[in-house]
Write a structure and sequence with these properties.
heterodimer; A: OB fold (Dihydrolipoamide Acetyltransferase, E2P); 2 domains; B: MetI-like fold
Chain lengths: 396, 267
């Protein structure tokens, strides 16, 4: 019997850990490139999400860390150890598979005990019992997987992996098969378990909300490469590509021309509107006359009826338009505003004081704090990341 | 009218019972006539009840010898065909190799070919090779035609197996051998068992191929055929009934076991 990580294993798997480091790994199948050469460091003990639409290479990346896929090039490090060519059963890494892959011929107890038994540990009863209690399945130990509900199976899959105190736990779309309510519950549950055990979690998902809720840092992947890496708040507030801006939440993107610089700010012109953008929040070159995509999130925008435009404080970015559509959600109202500079401007207005005049057809002024504006390189596809979100939505 | 309405409501049950009767009637006849005491050599007419044949099943010369030979051949043929067939099935499902398509269709050939053709060509082959006809030629022939059935049964099972289960086993520290023994084999087991049962049944009662290739060896089906020319001993019915009972008992035992398991799990 082999022990996966030899002498490195201590009682607390996290202590012996170290970062997961991917250095230049890529994967090609024939002429198809699933993952382009990729460098990524996942800090020890963090909850890390790989986020992207299906086919972006996130699962392949995960499988290369697990050892289920051999990289076409590059190196996988666990701490200081190069594990690139170790088979999966010799890596101190465990996976929670999509659709769980529980062993149908074994009961829950034996499913959870599987890893321990393969490592030659004889007395598994206590550990398995504790692990089943952790995921609240102590009563179900002697049932077969098919007798459990989806949520329970999911917890068994987590327990089966975690009991081995791996240095890294890989989760491949673990919540994809659950309904919305259960998914929310399991998100919190997984986050709790991660905090409790302190093991590095790498979570693959196409659900941006899931990634943002759970992860400390998120790598947004698109077409085999990482578009942007950062904390959820950082990614949301400061997207650096149109894909990230559109894939994470919703962004209003306006094509604008650089007019001038005033101090740290960039002044832009879109149609006959003048917009101000903090220079630090622009990821594109801002030479005068150059094109920039100006972005702003829908919830940062205030909506004022055109009759009261005079009451808007000075120094705010403003755009005029006509309400094309409004839908009342309860906590907020979502408006679609047609404006000469941007055809479908999305605005979310929190439900505090509802102005009864804000109905479709009304002339309005949209305004927001310039500090909430971000700038992107105009050479990109302005709609990148939008379609993919819809596709995923339809598939789910 | 009332009758038609009654029939209409119970059509499925009636059809089911009729089909069952159709299937079971021959077995019932065999069983009933195993308690017959025939006048003369042929056991085709009911005379009177007797348990003579049951108390002395080996009372007819060569019957038990041929039965034991048939059981031996069936056992070895099952073993050989199951092992080889399982490996072929895994190879066909899991690996992409050049002759895969050809093998996939050729494996059905023994099932599709008329048995008598296969029997005759096998005999020609054996004679040309200078093989001595007997136990071994029969066994080789049986393994050959049982193979296709085992491959078909196991292939269906392996194809429906989620490849992620084996990946999960590997991920949980099971090396290739452990993965096969602990995960792959147990999950494929029902398919393998079904293939083995088929192989046993096919081998045990095969007559045509065996008759061509057995030389002077006499298996049970050959014995039955041979004695039918001169008169049928009641013992043949006894053996037939016994086989039937063993099969029924096996099925019942399996049902009871799975019932009990389900009930224990439910509680």
């Amino acid at each position: 019997m082999t022990t996966k990580n030899g002498t490195n294993r201590t009682k607390n798997g996290a202590e012996a850990g170290g970062d997961v480091r991917l250095s230049g790994i890529s994967k090609t199948y024939g002429s198809f490139t699933a993952v382009r050469p990729l460098d990524l460091t996942v800090p020890q003990g963090s909850f890390f999400a790989l986020l992207g639409a299906s086919g972006c290479g996130k699962t392949t990346t995960l499988r290369m860390i697990a050892g289920l896929e051999e990289p076409s090039s590059g190196t996988v490090f666990l701490g200081e150890q190069d594990v690139t060519h170790l088979p999966p059963y010799r890596r101190p890494v465990n996976t929670v598979f999509q659709s769980y892959a529980l062993f149908p011929h074994l009961d829950i107890f034996e499913n959870v005990a599987f890893g321990l038994r393969r490592r030659g540990i004889k007395s598994v009863k206590k550990q398995v019992g504790e692990m089943l209690d952790l995921v609240q399945l102590g009563e179900q130990a002697r049932k077969k997987p098919h007798q459990l509900s989806g949520g329970q199976q999911q917890r068994v899959a987590v327990a089966r992996a975690l009991i081995n105190t791996p240095r890294v736990l890989l989760l491949d779309e673990p919540l994809g098969a659950l309904d919305l309510k259960l998914r929310r519950q399991m998100q919190l549950e997984l986050k709790r378990i991660q905090t409790e055990v302190g093991i590095t979690f790498i979570h693959v998902t196409h659900d941006q909300e899931e990634a943002m809720t759970m992860a400390d840092s998120v790598a947004v992947m698109n077409a085999g490469r990482v578009e942007q890496l950062g904390s959820p708040a950082d990614l949301y507030e400061n997207p650096r590509t149109t894909f990230v801006a559109n894939f994470l939440g919703t962004s209003n993107l306006i094509e604008a021309e650089v007019d001038s610089r005033s101090g740290d700010d960039v002044v832009l012109r879109a149609g006959d509107c003048k917009l101000v953008l903090p220079g630090a929040r622009c990821s594109a070159p801002t030479t005068a006359g150059g094109k920039v995509l100006v972005g702003v999130r829908p919830e940062k925008i205030s909506l004022t009826h055109a009759d009261e435009a005079g009451a808007i404080p000075a120094g705010r970015n403003r755009i005029t338009g006509t309400i094309a559509d409004s839908s009342f959600i309860g906590v907020s109202t979502q408006y679609v505003v047609d404006s000469p500079v941007c055809p479908e401007f999305e605005v979310y207005v929190q439900n505090i004081d509802r102005d009864p005049r804000l109905v479709p057809g009304a002339e309005v002024v949209l305004h927001w704090n310039p500090a909430h504006t971000f700038g992107l390189d105009a050479a990109q596809d302005i709609d990148a990341g939008i379609e993919t979100v819809e596709e995923e939505g339809a598939a789910a | 009218m009332a009758f038609f309405r009654w029939l209409n409501h119970r059509l499925v049950v009636v059809a089911g019972l009729l089909t069952l009767g159709y299937l079971l009637l021959p077995n019932i006849v065999v069983t009933v006539f195993s308690f017959n005491e025939p006048k003369g050599r042929f056991n085709y007419e009911w005379q009177r009840f007797s348990t003579d044949a049951w108390t002395d099943p080996c009372g007819v010369a060569d019957l038990c010898g041929s039965l034991s030979l048939s059981l031996q051949i069936a056992a070895w043929a099952t073993l050989g065909a199951t092992v080889l067939g399982t490996m072929i099935a895994f190879a066909l499902v899991r690996y992409r190799f050049r002759a895969r398509g050809a093998v996939n269709s050729l494996i059905f050939l023994p099932m599709a070919m008329p048995e008598v053709v296969m029997a005759a060509s096998l005999l020609t082959l054996f004679l040309n090779l200078g093989a001595q006809l007997g136990f071994w030629t029969v066994l080789i022939a049986h393994i050959m035609f049982c193979l296709s059935f085992v491959v078909t049964a196991v292939k269906a099972r392996v194809m429906s197996m989620d490849p992620r289960l084996e990946q999960a086993a590997q991920d949980l520290y099971a090396g290739p051998v452990q993965t096969f023994l602990r995960v792959t084999l147990p999950i494929a087991a029902p398919g393998i068992a079904a293939g083995a049962l088929l192989a046993f049944a096919l081998s045990f009662d095969d007559f045509i191929i065996t008759n061509f290739n057995a030389g002077s060896t006499v298996t049970f089906p050959m014995f039955v055929w041979g004695s039918a020319q001169r008169g049928t001993p009641v013992q043949i019915n006894v053996v037939g009934t016994a086989m039937f009972l063993v099969a029924v008992l096996c099925v019942l035992a399996a049902m009871v076991m799975s019932n009990r398991r389900n009930r224990r799990r439910a509680s």
